[in-house]
Amino acid sequence: MPHTLGNSGPAGTSLGLGLAALGRPGYITLGRAGDMGPDRSVQALEHRAHEVLDAAYHAGVRYFDAARSYGRAEDFLASWLASRGIKPGEVVVGSKWGYTYTADWNVDAERHEVKDHSVSTLRRQYAESRARLGAHLGLYQIHSATFESGVLDDALVLKELARLRENGLRVGLSLSGPQQAAVLRRALDIRVDGRPLFSCVQATWNVLERSVGSALAEAHASGWGVILKEVVANGRLGPRDEHPALHPFRALAAEQKTAPDVLAMAAALAQPWASIVLSGAATVAQLNSHLHALTLPYDEALDTCLRGMAEAPQVYWTTRSALPWN
Question: Fewer beta carbons below 10 Å: N end or C end of the chain?
Fold first, then answer.
């Protein structure tokens, strides 16, 4: 499956569901405190996750994305898969390694996750992911690969990932930060035992941050799966952000008679090199809103208008780093 990642469900949807906002009590999505309500117990969040997963599955979503650092996201996904009797191969499950969740279910924790791209962390977290997800796990990704972490130059890590690849697991990487395109182009050149190591990339692409687009097109042309994340820019492109700088975007959404988050999702879904566009919905209502993007009319004129709204990568990532956990 070079380009497809679970987008052949009943609705043929190229929408996937990311569990970053569903597996832990705190995240950096704007207005998330209102989404979660007062009960953020493990049991309450598992119930909420199952509700959103049910709605996604019934809408035809077949790609589900988690990570070791998303609190209990893998546990919630595993319990949902088991309780619904979903067999391996009926959905595609991806997860990630490289960050360890450290907040201990506390929204106000000083640090929510710790990054470590060592081979020992890879081995430990892969065992943890496999223990939870079993044969459902089809894609394992480096979480936020960067030049600074040195992960793409670590021979031991690359050899271990190649071993997982040889055992039938698809290996990929996710990206973050203003150097996404350069990191991806470096990854495209990595070969182990004469074969390309990676076959999938997950990157931040949205109306405000388009800088990785050309590199993603290159990855797609090379046969990689391409997954887009943070399409609503952690809520900045949703209905709650009233920052004056985003007024033109909200006005354009109003002209299309749709919500801002729907327009943001539609822009990502329209990219010809995108295999899967992730919804980061924390509620069924948010998911249902994102699903409307699948049928929103989208043409070159609309895309041209949206292109003028992009921010410089450094500006975008500086703004993102200042978003509060809530």
Answer: N
